[in-house]
Design brief:
The structure holds two protein chains of two kinds. By secondary structure, chain A is an alpha/beta fold. Chain A is built from eight helices and six strands; from the N terminus they run βαβββαβααβαααα. Chain B has four domains: 221 residues, Thiamin diphosphate (ThDP)-binding fold, Pyr/PP domains (Rossmann fold), CATH 3.40.50.970; 128 residues, 3-Layer(aba) Sandwich (Rossmann fold); 182 residues, Rossmann fold (3-Layer(aba) Sandwich); 65 residues, Alpha-Beta Plaits. Chain B has 22 helices and 23 strands. In chain B, helix 2 packs parallel to helix 7 and helix 12 crosses helix 13. The chains are: A alpha/beta, B alpha/beta. Chains A and B meet through helix 1, strand 2, helix 2, helix 3 and helix 4 of A and strand 1, strand 8, helix 11, helix 14 and helix 15 of B.
């Protein structure tokens, strides 16, 4: 099969590694070859982080620029930060959350006229690379599912709604349930379904 | 998930991080003693061993004080007849190399393997140091894998080679190999019980000096000759057949970039993949050079292979064209990737790259321009270092000596004092270097000399420098940031902890008592969460002549929160009382907590509840006490 490349991006502490583990397990259970290039580095929170996730016949652990079929961004500015990895018309599934960095906050107090970068500004720029952008209120959906810590499952669910997504949705659902903390299984299951539905309706538009 | 794969007894495929596959391989090789000091990108090796230690109960492990002690520990175990393993980051080998170069002479007994991980791009290191020279410099075999599977295979092989030739074997990796996850075909796990040996049964001489050293050197050279013969035949040095008279020689992660670049270009050039960096398979390289007119050498960092290939080409094929760093095709710094390799291959073959990478990068640059904010590394919410550094700067301001001091920083999370908002550190070289540099500066400068180390760095390499300062009556103020654990690499225990690997009990060293015993002129303990209260004692310690120590004691927030959760305690976030807040912004200026943002509607500070750790350091720096603990309903 053709290699399907996904780049996960986000902010340290958001649970990107769990996201990668879930899709990794799902792909393996579906009999697919998987390879990832992860960023473990130092342990401080709040930095910019990514995981290169490759299914099919990957050779290098790092996705070449302009060839990621999908980007899953747990934070909006982090989608733009790694946009060079996305191929023309690749799918971007991004949370609507913008987490300002302290550097930006400091700029706001230095200049009273200035405001934070908005989701709309980020989305507009992401759309210069692709028109297939799914923006999700991942936190809102996670709360609706009953647990704000289930944003991961919302985003994974939305990814599964994409028609060329290579991992069968059933395998992903099973992997979610297998890897999340047992107490949160029900909430994660609901979050996954909400993400799946939201992704499908966005991609149809 | 993957720790379960490390533990499983049967064989079969598993998706594993290379660092986990390395642990699995060592366990399959029945490793009995493990010692390591954490360091990115190897920390998960130590963490994984630690996590499975009590599960197996049939090997022993130390989170060692530093890499030299770790290597000596595993060498000692090998001399005592037990298979042993250590891993360290690139610069760790600088520390360990003193003993490493001698143990090559004396040899060892049971299989002893050391993994060293270089960090091209200096993602998490102070330099891009190329560790490949260590093998050759020490006459110690060194091998290099490309994938998780190969790392697994090579570690198992390394134990055999080590035992066969009674030598240390080094497995060299780079960040992109350590932090790569891929499928690994596991073998069966057959462990044997741990049983102490008797020295009488394994005794040998491991002593080298003078005449003995000369005799050992002659034997070492003979040993290397035999290893070279074995490595010539090793399947880890292999030619992937291809077409044409342009060939590629590569190793490590670059091999993967090469293979993917060739697939993208639709070409199949012969590739010699080098698996043994020392001794190199010189005959295989010479044979390969004879069959090509152009050879492209693909390797990150120094022209290590290229230089040796160039030397071999003198006899094998003097007219061969060598494309590499000396020809200007490849950089001698940073990481490589598929686009970098593909561009060079396309250029040599006169083809177009599969993607117009320059256009893609240009488009991305335009998309980000003027919009994308920086997100530099920053102290976590609740980090005690934020309070310590704030109080330190306040003390300097109040003493009016901000321009009359030199501040030697050291390796740890607190290295980030160099970044905004502190922008503060005159030096940072290597573990413990702050105290060594301070000795010279104290002699040469009229300014006050201030050094800073964390608890882990204190024990790792700062102690000799500290004894040196005290002995020489130096006027130096030393900050020790005591946050209970080796925070930066993932909160591993160190001599400041009450436990060791696998949470087995260990003796906590009392640092204030040893500072007193060494003869420090004063030892002051401060709590960075009582940030305001810290300023005065810091001022006093800086003003006092002699060697004065400030221990800033408060556990790492990530570690502390985990411990709280274990105890069932809730983390109660703070809120900013907008009625009290007067937009002074002390909590933002020179503080930079990720949980703190501005409400654009009234320009007041807001604390993001899901990020806040509830430390209330921000209340401490607020002149009007606006941030407070959130009221929680029981």
């Amino acid at each position: 099969m053709k290699t399907y490349n996904i780049i996960f991006t986000g902010v340290g502490g958001q649970g990107l590694m769990l996201l990668s583990s879930i899709l990794g397990k799902a792909a393996v259970d579906a009999g697919l070859e998987v390879m990832t290039g992860e960023q473990h580095g130092l342990s401080q929170r709040s930095g910019s982080i990514y995981v290169h996730f490759r299914v099919g016949e990957p050779i290098s652990p790092i996705i070449p620029y302009g060839t990621a079929d999908m980007m899953i961004a747990m934070e909006a500015t982090e989608a733009l930060r790694y946009i060079e990895y996305l191929r023309d018309d690749g799918v971007v599934i991004m949370s609507n959350r913008v987490m300002p960095s302290p550097i930006e906050t400091a700029e706001l107090i230095a200049d009273k006229e200035r405001n934070y970068v908005t989701l709309e500004m980020i989305e507009e720029r992401v759309r210069t690379v692709t028109s297939r952008v799914v923006v999700l209120d991942s936190l809102g959906l996670a709360m609706k599912a009953g647990n704000p810590r289930t944003e991961n499952s919302v985003l994974v669910g939305a990814a599964c709604a994409c028609e060329d997504f290579p991992i069968p949705v059933e395998k992903v659902r099973e992997a979610v349930l297998a890897l999340v903390p047992p107490k949160t299984r029900d909430a994660n299951s609901r979050a996954f379904e909400l993400g799946l539905k939201a992704g499908a309706s966005c991609l149809r538009e | 998930m993957t720790v379960e794969d490390v533990k499983r007894e049967d064989h079969g495929p598993a998706l594993m991080l290379t660092n986990e596959a390395v642990v699995r391989a060592a366990l399959e090789a029945d490793v009995k003693v493990v010692a390591a000091y954490p360091g990115s990108p190897t920390s998960e090796i130590l963490d994984t061993f630690s996590e499975v230690l009590t599960h197996f109960g049939d090997f022993r492990m130390h989170v060692a004080i530093n890499e030299k002690v770790a290597l000596e520990t595993v060498a000692g175990a090998s001399m005592a007849g037990m298979r042993s393993f250590t891993s360290m980051k690139s610069v760790g080998m600088n520390v360990a190399s003193d003993s490493m170069l001698s143990m090559a002479y004396t040899g060892l007994r049971a299989g002893c393997v050391c993994l060293i991980a270089d960090d091209p791009h200096a993602h998490s290191s102070q330099s891009e140091q190329d560790g490949r020279y260590f093998g050759e410099a020490a006459y110690v075999p060194m091998i290099e894998p490309s994938t998780a599977q190969e790392a697994y295979d090579m570690v198992k092989w390394a134990f055999e080679v080590s035992e066969r030739y009674r030598t240390l074997v080094i497995v060299r990796t780079t960040t992109r190999v350590n932090h790569q996850r891929g499928m690994v075909r596991l073998g069966d796990l057959k462990r044997t019980p741990f049983k102490r040996k008797r020295w009488a049964d394994v005794r040998d001489s491991y002593f080298t000096v003078g005449a003995v050293a000369r005799e050992l050197k002659a034997r070492l050279l003979e040993k290397v000759k035999r290893i070279r013969e074995e490595f010539e035949e090793s399947e880890f040095n292999r030619v992937d057949e291809g077409e044409g008279d342009v060939g590629i020689i590569t190793a490590g992660v670059c091999y993967l970039h090469v293979k993917e670049a060739m697939r993208n270009l639709g070409v199949s050039l012969p590739v010699l993949k080098i698996g043994t960096l020392y001794p190199l398979p010189e005959r295989k390289i010479a044979d390969f050079l004879k069959r090509v007119s152009t050879v492209i050498v693909v390797e990150e960092l120094s022209p290590f292979l290229e230089t040796r290939i160039t030397a071999l080409a003198k006899d094998a094929n003097p007219s061969v064209r060598i494309i590499g760093k000396r020809s200007g095709h490849f950089p001698e710094m940073l990481e490589y990737n598929v686009p970098i390799v593909e561009r060079v291959l396309a250029g040599v073959l006169g083809r177009e790259t599969s993607v117009d990478y320059d256009a893609v990068l240009e488009r991305a640059k335009r998309a980000k321009e003027g919009v994308l904010p920086d997100r530099a590394p920053i102290f976590c919410p609740g980090c005690p270092h934020r309070g310590t550094l704030w109080a330190f700067r306040q003390a300097l301001t109040r003493l009016k000596i901000r321009d009359k001091i030199v501040f030697n920083n050291d390796i740890g999370c607190y290295s980030m004092a160099f970044l905004p908002p502190n922008n503060f550190s005159d030096s940072m070289l290597a573990m413990g270097a702050s105290v060594g540099l301070s000795a010279g500066m104290e002699m040469a400068l009229e300014d006050k000399v201030i050094a800073m180390v964390g608890d882990s760095t204190l024990y790792h390499a700062a102690l000799p420098g500290i004894v040196n300062l005290i002995h020489h009556n130096s006027n130096v103020t030393l900050f020790v940031l005591d946050n209970s654990v080796t925070a930066m690499t993932g909160q591993q225990p160190n001599p400041n902890s009450t436990y060791d690997a696998g949470h087995t009990p260990a003796r906590k060293i009392n640092m204030e008592r040893f500072f007193e015993a060494l003869g420090a002129d004063s030892v002051t303990i401060i709590d960075p969460y009582e940030t305001r209260e810290c300023v005065k004692p810091i001022m006093e310690a800086i003003q006092r002549p002699g060697f004065n120590v400030i221990i800033s004691r408060r556990e790492c927030a990530l570690y502390g929160d985990r411990e709280k959760k274990k105890r069932g305690e809730k983390i109660v976030p703070s809120v900013n009382d907008k009625e009290v807040c007067r937009n002074i912004y002390a909590c933002i200026r020179e503080f930079y907590c990720p949980a703190i943002v501005i409400d654009e509607s009234d320009r007041k500070m807001v604390i993001q509840q899901d990020l806040c750790d509830g430390c209330l350091e921000c209340r401490q720096v607020c002149p009007v006490d606006a941030p407070r603990r959130m009221e929680v309903r029981q």
